[in-house]
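Exercise 7. Predict the structure of Putative restriction endonuclease domain-containing protein from Sorangium cellulosum.
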Amino acid sequence: MPVYAREGVRHVWLIAPLQRTLEIFTLAADRSWAPIATHRDTASVRATPFQAIELDLAVLWAT
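Solution. The predicted structure, encoded as tokens:
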């Protein structure tokens, strides 16, 4: 994620389909990544920076 930090991207979502997780990180003042949330399985989440939209994680894992 160094390229994202260098370019000033403020938030990163890492989606791991096999683990069925969504991890959310924010860029700290020192340009390091700080984890702010981990969501699992079939949770419905409102995740930074898109809190206005509810995301049903079950859709991501559908086969």
